[in-house]
Amino acid sequence: PSAFDHVSEAPPDALFGLMAKYRADEAPQKVDLGIGAYRDDDGKPWVLPVVRKAEQLLRDDPEANHEYLPIAGLAKLTSAAQKLVLGADSPAILEKRAATFQTISGTGALHLGSLFLAKFYQTPEQSRPVLISDPTWANHVQIFGNVGLKTDTYPYWNKATRGLNLDGMLGRLREAPEGSIVLLHACAHNPTGVDPTKDEWKQIAEVMKEKKLFPFFDTAYQGFASGDLAHDAWAIRYFVEQGFELVVAESFAKNFGLYGERAGCFHFVGAPAPNAAEITKKVASQLAILQRSEISNPPAYGAKIASLCLNDPTLFAEWEDNLRTMSGRIIEMRKALYDKLVELKTPGDWTHIINQIGMFSFTGLTPAQVDKMIGEHHIYLTKNGRISMAGLNTKNIQYVAEAIHKVVT
Ligand code: PLP
Q1: Where does the record place the Aminotransferase class I/classII large domain (predicted)?
Q2: Is the CB of 302 under 6 A from ligand 1?
Q3: Which atom of ligand 1 is nearest to the CA of 359?
Q4: ipTM > 0.95?
């Protein structure tokens, strides 16, 4: 008899299930608004031109090889990634209180961070929970749960305004047990597309400081959201400036289009204190042990590409240009969808479509309306009404707007 008789069948991943349904649909007019990856105006994956150049440089390099990277990853990448997130003149870097490990993209960074916190940020008296926005990226809860951290939620989405529920969020943070971990999306909140304004971030920081809460930033869309790298990292830099000790999970999947290459970094930033550099060094030594036992060393190919782009000024400028192309197209699609819904006189206020940012938009469509979008119009989106702006293009936008119009009227 099997020792696994008791194992029940888990439901398939909802998003990957939706993608399979889309692929199986033979209707020529089908549209995929579920995807979490950038598509060009022809609905095709886009290899960034700067990434193609970096790949060519790698191919032409006679010294290139497939050796293991160090446990902490490619040093040229981790140092550049630190500057990218924290800012080149960050006091945390100058004071040597930032430690960075290359990870298996953003998911791996979240995992390494959560493992570290499960091991080193729990008290014997009370386990410190992780507060996650409601709603959030579907994977957050299971990543933290897998390492035994308790998760709870804070309100985020205001259904009525289709914007941020700041009062609900702050209220919940005020009630949280001291020392709780708070997961924050640095920009382009997934799935809502709603980010706090600078003033709202300041209020969040104030409450978190007062309640001694620990920020865990997830940054998966730097530069991809607004097209401006510093703008999209503003919240993280502000929290560092405010003296928080914090961690950051960074993904290069979206902003480099390196989805499958699994490039990312985990950053630890120690609190400003006279012994901060010493603490950071000890933390890094423990992270090295965790990393060694989990993955030994991170994947090299995507890291080499990202590193070339981040360290060469010409390639860096071209990358910024590519980022503006992607974010610009997405912002244009928001505007186009909004204009079409207004033109069609679709009932309701659709300004949230243009106010939201990043790849995703929480449309406010109900589960029943989503079912109709899929069943009657072959337009695929997640049950919560989230659409990926990257799936829209000049060829399908009229069709999508008309379908939304039909399902809401
Ligand atoms: N965090 C958020 C909010 C995301 O949306 C994503 C990707 O969709 C990730 C993290 C991590 O993705 P990856 O592991 O592909 O870098």
Answers
A1: 29-404
A2: no
A3: 5
A4: yes
Q: What is the pLDDT of residue 11?
A: 86
Ligand 1: centre distance to CA 107 (Å): 6
Pocket probe for ligand 1: among 187, 232, 250, 251, the residue whose CB has the most ligand atoms within 8 Å is: 251
**Which H, E and C letters describe the chain, residue by residue?**
CCCCCCCCCCCCCHHHHHHHHHHHCCCCCCEECCCCCCECCCCCECCCHHHHHHHHHHHHCCCCCCCCCCCCCCHHHHHHHHHHHHCCCCHHHHCCCEEEEEEEHHHHHHHHHHHHHHHHCCCCCCCCCEEEEECCCCCHHHHHHHCCCCEEEEECEECCCCEECHHHHHHHHHHCCCCCEEEEECCCCCCCCCCCCHHHHHHHHHHHHHCCCEEEEEECCCCCCCCCHHHHCHHHHHHHHCCCCEEEEEECCCCCCCHHHCEEEEEEECCCCCCHHHHHHHHHHHHHHHHHHHCCCCCCHHHHHHHHHHHCHHHHHHHHHHHHHHHHHHHHHHHHHHHHHHHCCCCCCCHHHHHCCCCEEECCCCHHHHHHHHHHHCEECCCCCEEEHHHCCCCCHHHHHHHHHHHHC
